[in-house]
Amino acid sequence: MVTAPRFQEIRDWSPGYINVTPEHVTIMAECTACGATREFAREKLPSHLHFSLISEIEPHLKCSSCGAKAGKLRFGSYVA
Ligand SMILES: [Zn+2]
Predict the structure, then answer these.
(1) What single string gives the DSSP state of each residue in 23-59?
(2) I need a labelling partner for 60 at 20 to 30 A (CA). Which of 19, 24, 38, 53 fits?
């Protein structure tokens, strides 16, 4: 049986700006309305947000499950 890697959040840490987030850090977008999470793809970010604060990006996140704009970005990595 293969166990899926688990996402472990770095508690109480934010890089501040998206462009200074280290490459090895995995970003997860979480919907605070319905709890859905999915991996956040930095390369899909619109170019005008490439050098933005995390707090400026979060209002643009729209949940693909429930449609709410209640996204929160979490930073961490996958652990086996
Ligand atoms: Zn949602």
Answers:
(1) TT-EEEEEETTT--EEE--GGGS-GGGTT-BHHHHGG
(2) 24
How many Å lie between the centroid of ligand 1 and the Cα of residue 29? 10
Q: Residue 71 Cα, ligand 1 centroid: separation in angstroms? A: 8
pTM of structure: 0.89
Cβ-contact 39, 27 below 8 angstroms: yes
Q: Domain coordinates of the chain in residue numbers? A: 6-79
C-alpha 60 – ligand 1 centre gap (Å): 13
pLDDT in tens, 32-65: 999 999 999 999 999 999 999 999 999 999 999 9
